[in-house]
Amino acid sequence: MAEFDVDALRARFPALSIEQHGRLIALFDGPGGTQVPDTVIEAVATYYRTSNANHEGPFLTSRRSDAILDEAHLALADLVNAADPSEVKFGANMTTLTMHLARSITASLAPGDEIVVTSLDHEANVGPWRSAAADHGLTVRTVDIRPDDVTLDLESFDAALHRRPRLVAFGWASNAVGSINPVGELVRRAHEAGALAFVDAVHAAPHLPIDVQAVDADFLAYSAYKFFGPHLGVLYGKHDVLDRLPTYKLRPAHDRFETGTLNHEGIAGALAAVEYIAEIGERFGSSFVAPFAEAGMSGRRLLAHAGMAAIRAYEMPLFGRLLDGLAAVPGARLWGIGDQLRFGERTPTAAVTLEGVSPEAASTALGERGIATWWGNFYAVGPIERLGLEPDGVVRIGLTHYNTAAEVDRLVTELQDIAAG
User: Fold this and answer.
1) Tens of pLDDT along 134-152?
2) Is the CATH number of domain 6-37+307-419 3.90.1150.10?
């Protein structure tokens, strides 16, 4: 297998050549949205040049557009190992798709039925369920977290299931602190309690392989702009479960959940993003192929999963380098899992506070030095509140596969200077 060539991959991302004060910027803002490779940019531009038309027209550009959309449904099904491309639905973003689905699901429930959410999640997997539940007289219960390592409290999860909820919504990974949930086990427990399982995989999708059939999720939401594509949301739903739901759509609409004219050019870019990940699998993923092949995957589906495995194998040692560096920053505290023996339970996203320096001040100072990070709660209101870190939140440092060891060392050096005042 060829060694993971981060420099060759970085050359594919035009934004990584941006300079500030004569130095290349270092982008650790991936959890808020990743950069895109050249082929994604070209796919969007090519759509506009050659295929820009509405759906199902009896002419060349419309037929080209429809072919791209069909192939994109296949590609996004490949990325999460969906059984059929009809189980993939595109929308404006994960939040909008979740609100649409929440409206459909809660319309099928009765007053007094219960929904379970968690305090580890992004608000997009909490607020839509609360709002829709309020419209139908439903009860929403919240699963707690373990503050020591900022992971889901499984005892609290089981206690919520004892009440036989109708739906359980939780994340694959926390966008604030990086904790990865035992998704397959949580889905199994939800199903045993008679509940549907909705999984927010937005933060997980750019960092690890996702297999909806293996974990048996009923629904899974993910966002193309978090895995090197355009601003676009994607929803997976089991075919038989989607078919049972009421829906809100226009009578002539071709799909029950894809409402209105879609972002065709963005979908073309999302297709290119999956193909980029598959290229990584082809170049650097040969040693990761076997388990996915044994699961029956082949072609682009196999390569995309091997590509995500290769990305994870590169990112996590780099994250270890970051944590080693943070240990030398006076007053720095990592919130979440810091034990390298537990790296299988997290993504390469660090939530950090500096003693005596507000997250806003630290992130702003980094930005002035050409290093992009985020500060605040990132719409993950639940865990930040639970940790007592509101209103300031944390500094979020998100590593992706296009970050380098030199960038990490530069970040650590600047944090040491900022911490020293």
Assistant:
1) 999 999 999 999 999 999 9
2) yes
